[in-house]
């Protein structure tokens, strides 16, 4: 087996890490979208049972916004803990232990309806958010560190692929004819426990990251054993030499602190890039599409169950394009895909704003809206969807990577929280012109990427970081 090839054990480690982690992240992002009306009715009736009065529409929207976005608060907390967890336990063991939070959140969200408690549901969403925040940092880190350099982009993209698949699964099982109804909706929040169980079982069969074992634990024997296991060969001398060289170079550097991250040029610039791309991913408008796609299609003029089916169609396109991006990222490169993605999304959000404004003027316009949203999803999945998650692991060395992840991942969740919480109110105030905000932002992100983001395709960390010294 060559060092630049997939082996059965490497594939198992990828599946174990990405499927168990990415599923929680994507599923809990999309699960409340399709059965939105059912869950809102439950919030209203439960509030009436507890406090003796129904919620007015504005307060209901606020409560729904809190229930939706509290997951992002948890994600921010989890992201902040990534560095501590990865250094103390290692990326793999951190993922393993993180499933304890899935169990706690499942119990809380599954019991919310039987005990008629809105507060329990909100706390459950908060806890699963912490789990997802940790997953978002630990999983790309683990995938990046176990992958050969030539396969790193493709392997790291798998996390985003699983997120898109799980969003689609959530949208399908959330249909009223399956689990998204008054009787069965609590099971929507119990289902993910089976993926946590899968991850616990499969991660036992996977080794810890060889880079972590050597760079943090300073255990050469275990690092070599881990690499031999993943590559399924004893011929690891060349790759082990590369890991040792990187480790020795990093040891020669002073210990990285959070103060260093914002003062040292060699760390400050890549940190700015990593955090800016995390903000760009969320402020591109993706959550406006994912969280509120069903409502958007209703306002575009679709009737009956068509808005829900159109939303599921978005999920299908997202999955298919993310699969394509796994291969594209190693062909076209990271920077090119990001520029094409954000430039294209600027154009699409402009057209979508115009189409929604005139949706009631022609029967064809709602279908134009669907096409525009589908094109938007294609552009997002090709670059902005996956690249920010793993680029942060590519532009920092082992010493700085945990702290960089601990700053970049919370930035993503905070941006997610802001968009999720404010979009309904802004959209209510200015209507379809809300998408004009995303036009301006996407143009700005395109310019930033063109001027600041380096191409990392087939480059080592040393080659990438040398430009900032």
What's the helix count? 19
**How many beta-strand runs?**
0
In whole angstroms, how far apart are the ends?
A: 36 Å
Name the average pLDDT. Answer: 87
What does this structure look like?
The protein is mostly helical and 469 residues long. Helix content is 77%, strand content 0%. The chain has 19 helices and no strands. It has helices spanning 8-30, 36-51, 57-89, 91-111, 118-146, 152-173, 193-203, 210-215, 220-231, 237-251, 258-263, 265-299, 306-331, 334-357, 365-382, 387-394, 401-430, 434-452, 461-465.
Layout of secondary structure:
Blueprint (H helix, E strand, L loop, with lengths): L7 H23 L5 H16 L5 H33 L1 H21 L6 H29 L5 H22 L19 H11 L6 H6 L4 H12 L5 H15 L6 H6 L1 H35 L6 H26 L2 H24 L7 H18 L4 H8 L6 H30 L3 H19 L8 H5 L4
What descriptive keywords fit this protein?
469 residues; globular
In short:
The protein has 469 residues and is mainly alpha-helical. Helices cover 77% and strands 0% of the residues. Helix 13 (306-331) packs parallel to helix 15.
């Amino acid at each position: 087996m060559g060092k630049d090839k997939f082996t059965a054990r490497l594939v198992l480690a990828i599946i174990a890490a990405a499927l168990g982690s990415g599923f929680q992240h994507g599923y809990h992002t999309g699960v409340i979208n399709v059965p939105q009306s059912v869950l809102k009715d439950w919030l209203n009736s439960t509030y009436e049972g507890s406090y003796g009065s129904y919620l007015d529409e504005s307060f209901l929207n606020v409560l729904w916004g809190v229930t939706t976005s509290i997951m992002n608060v948890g994600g921010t907390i989890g992201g902040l803990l990534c560095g501590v967890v990865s250094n103390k336990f290692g990326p793999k063991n951190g993922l393993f232990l993180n499933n304890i939070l899935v169990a706690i959140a499942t119990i809380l969200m599954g019991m919310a309806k039987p005990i008629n408690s809105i507060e329990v549901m909100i706390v459950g969403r908060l806890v699963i958010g912490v789990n997802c925040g940790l997953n978002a940092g630990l999983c790309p880190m683990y995938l990046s560190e176990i992958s050969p350099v030539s396969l790193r982009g493709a392997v790291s993209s798998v996390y985003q692929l699983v997120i898109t698949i799980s969003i689609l699964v959530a949208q399908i099982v959330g249909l009223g004819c399956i689990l998204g109804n008054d009787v069965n909706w609590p099971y929507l929040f119990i289902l993910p426990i089976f993926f946590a169980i899968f991850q616990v079982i499969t991660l036992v069969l996977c080794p810890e990251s060889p880079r972590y074992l050597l760079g943090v634990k300073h255990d050469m024997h275990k690092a070599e054993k881990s690499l031999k296991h993943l590559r399924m060969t004893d011929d690891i001398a060349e790759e082990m030499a590369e890991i040792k060289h990187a480790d020795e170079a990093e040891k020669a550097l002073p210990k990285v602190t959070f103060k260093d991250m914002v003062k040292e040029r060699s760390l400050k610039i890549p940190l700015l890039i990593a955090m800016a791309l995390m903000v760009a991913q969320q402020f591109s408008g993706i959550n406006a599409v994912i969280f509120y796609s069903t409502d958007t299609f209703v306002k575009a003029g679709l009737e009956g169950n068509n808005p829900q089916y159109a939303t599921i169609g978005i999920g299908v396109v997202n999955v298919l394009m993310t699969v394509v991006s796994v291969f594209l990222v190693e062909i076209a490169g990271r920077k090119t895909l990001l520029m094409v993605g954000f430039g294209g999304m600027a154009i699409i959000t402009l057209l979508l704003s115009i189409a929604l404004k005139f949706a009631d003027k022609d029967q064809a316009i709602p279908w134009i809206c669907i096409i525009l949203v589908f094109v938007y999803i294609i552009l997002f999945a090709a670059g902005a969807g996956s690249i920010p998650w793993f680029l942060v692991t590519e532009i920092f060395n082992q010493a700085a990577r945990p702290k960089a992840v601990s700053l970049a991942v919370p930035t993503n969740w905070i941006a997610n929280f802001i968009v999720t919480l404010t979009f309904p109110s802004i959209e209510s105030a200015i209507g379809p012109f809300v998408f004009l905000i995303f036009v301006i932002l996407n143009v700005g992100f395109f310019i930033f990427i063109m001027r600041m983001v380096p191409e990392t395709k087939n480059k080592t960390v040393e080659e990438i970081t040398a430009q900032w010294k």
